[in-house]
Amino acid sequence: MTDDPQQLRSVVAQRLGEKKLILVSNREPYVHDYVGGELKCTTPASGLVTALEPVMCACGGTWVAHGSGNADRELVDGENRIIVPPHAGNYCLKRVWLSKAEEEGYYYGFANQTLWPLCHLAHTRPRFDAVHWRTYKAVNWKFAQAVLQEAGSDPALVFVQDYHFALLPKMLKENRPDLLIAHFWHIPWPNREAFAICPWGNELLEGLLGNDLLGFQTQQHCNNFMRTVDGALENIVDYEQFAVLHRGHRTLVRPFPIGVDSEAISRYAQSPEAVAHTDRLKHELGLSGQMVGLGVDRIDYTKGIPERFLAIDRFLERHPEYQKKFTFLQIGPVSRININEYKALNDELYHLMVDINHKHGADRWTPIHMIKGNYPREALVAFFRLADVCIVSSVDDAMNLVAKEFVSARPDGNAALILSRFAGAAEELSEAVLVNPYDIDGFADAIKQALEMPQQEKERRMARMWQAVAENNTYKWATKIITEISRLA
Ligand code: GDG
């Protein structure tokens, strides 16, 4: 199975032949904004973009996504297209414009206040609002039109991303039954009983059954989906083939655990620029002689960040000898801040940090530093290189790419990873120090274990994890999906 960009390109050429590749996601890979009168291009903090950007660079094609930057409109042609990445020009980005009301109802509303909490076991209640639902349907149709326009009358593979577009596959199939449609659901699929509370559940399922191939991160999510569909609609659910037959159309359901471009990350991590950047950061943040803990997350209630702070508090209570010796950096771009739960989480984290820093801080040392902002990927690698331990403590996470990025950035092996058992990544990264983030005492013990792990053990564990991440990188992930879908053509 291929694991580099050239090989992926040839697999795509071989398997897709004349078919166009059209990828659809809500988030665009490049956002253009005016900041202080200057034009800036940024990459958003998104696991989906991290995984798919290298794939599109390798394969070419068109990426259809919401144009969210304040300068986005000025840079596109008459068909709302722009060639990206800015200095390489590997593929076409077609931007779809959304009004404030559409963004409110479809993105902040149905996608992130209904489907996100519905699919995650984070004990946050989903909101079921009929206006959000109607807007979600309308925006799915808007994207369907953009895809149909892009496909023209040509054969195409449409690769749909995530929970923003549950209705899109059916809309596309009804208009162009010959299109090949694959969909990757990046977040968990809940169990049938949890899903049953959604008043529009059957419509969502019918939308998804427009796909030829529906991928999830783990076998468990596939099982949950099959059980949800079984009995909800008039279907034939085939557990032997893992397929659903609905109104004469067959959808294959398969696990495809996602990866990162680990080789590129490792290569950059070993470059003189990365080494210099790490030294600079260490100096600027006053970390010389400190043991450093690191968290990198979109600030989201599924990522278990309050639990992480509480575990650091407990660790310092029990081991005061680490005072002035251990500093924890939490890097996190603010996310979905228009939603109340996210505002409350940001406030909670700030207050927790202030309390913990007040309780344990001494002289000029404070244990927790929160650094908000969206860093370029290279800077994240420098942060990864700084850390003695990286903590990923999601309360529920379909995969979690930060864990895989950290491992990729540490080919030196001189670091430890603490990883939640409730992140999909724990299946592949079983050599991490695994924790239940809700068990604060156990979590505090894990911090001690990671910081005091003998050098040889750290290297052994890291080497195994590095191997696992390199073996299942983002190119292999895309190859598996394209190979599977092309069998159906
Ligand atoms: C969903 C699923 C699944 C973080 N700070 C910055 C930044 N990041 C990047 C990280 C990483 C990405 O954001 C976050 O990825 P995750 O996988 O942790 O999480 P979600 O965004 O919730 O992603 C998840 C993923 O989809 C892929 O299928 O793994 O389970 O929830 O790549 O490095 N990126 C930049 N600046 C930052 O400051 N540029």
Tags for this model:
489 residues, alpha/beta, Rossmann fold, 10-stranded mixed β-sheet, 6-stranded parallel β-sheet, binds GDP-alpha-D-glucose
Structure explained in plain terms:
The protein has 489 residues and is an alpha/beta fold. It has two domains: 5-259 and 474-486, Rossmann fold; 262-470, Glycogen Phosphorylase B (Rossmann fold, 3-Layer(aba) Sandwich), CATH 3.40.50. The protein contains 17 helices and 18 strands. The strands form three sheets. A ten-stranded mixed β-sheet has the order 5-6-4-1-7-8-9-12-11-10, with helices on both faces. It has a six-stranded parallel β-sheet with strand order 15-14-13-16-17-18, with helices on both faces. Strand 14, helix 12 (340-360) and strand 15 form a beta-alpha-beta unit. Helix 1 runs parallel beside helix 17 (474-486) and helix 3 crosses helix 4. The longest helix has 22 residues, at 130-151. The mean pLDDT is 96.
Note the topology.
Layout: H1 5-16, E1 20-24, E2 31-35, E3 38-42, H2 47-59, E4 62-66, E5 81-84, E6 91-96, H3 100-119, H4 130-151, E7 156-161, H5 168-175, E8 180-184, H6 192-195, H7 201-208, E9 213-216, H8 219-229, E10 235-238, E11 243-246, E12 249-255, H9 262-269, H10 272-284, E13 291-296, H11 305-318, E14 326-332, H12 340-360, E15 368-372, H13 377-386, E16 389-392, H14 401-408, E17 416-420, E18 433-435, H15 440-451, H16 455-471, H17 474-486
Parallel strand pairs: 1-4, 1-7, 4-6, 7-8, 8-9, 9-12, 13-14, 13-16, 14-15, 16-17, 17-18
Antiparallel strand pairs: 2-3, 5-6, 10-11, 11-12
Helix pairs in contact: 1-2, 1-17, 3-4, 4-5, 9-14, 10-13, 11-12, 11-15
